[in-house]
Design brief:
two-stranded antiparallel ribbon; two-stranded antiparallel sheet; flat
């Protein structure tokens, strides 16, 4: 009896094509969207656990969040080299979020 159960589970066919994921509208959507490092434009692999991604909010002159934000992703190898602080300063300066004037 046990061998027939094993045989029945082994004989299930697997398709060579993965099923496409669809949203409610019937459009095909991907499961995974790769990220790019904001500092180096290199792709961040899905299994890299050292990478970080964060949003920097835009605020008005009263300090109230206005619904807009900038997204930054930093790869783990930049963080391991200790260059993430300098890279973030450069990125913030490019977006006019940080000034170096005295």
């Amino acid at each position: 009896v046990v061998s027939s159960e094993v045989e029945s589970t082994r004989s299930t066919p697997f398709s060579s094509q993965p099923e496409a994921m669809q949203n409610d509208e019937g459009r095909i959507v991907d499961l995974y969207l790769p990220r790019k490092c904001s500092a180096t434009n290199r792709l961040i692999p899905a299994k890299e656990h050292g990478a970080v991604q964060f949003n920097v909010a835009q605020v008005d002159e009263n300090g109230v969040y206005n619904g807009e934000f900038y997204t930054f992703a930093i790869a783990g190898f930049i963080r391991n080299r200790g260059e993430s602080d300098a890279c973030l300063n450069r990125l913030f300066h490019e977006k006019s979020l940080l000034t170096f004037s005295k």
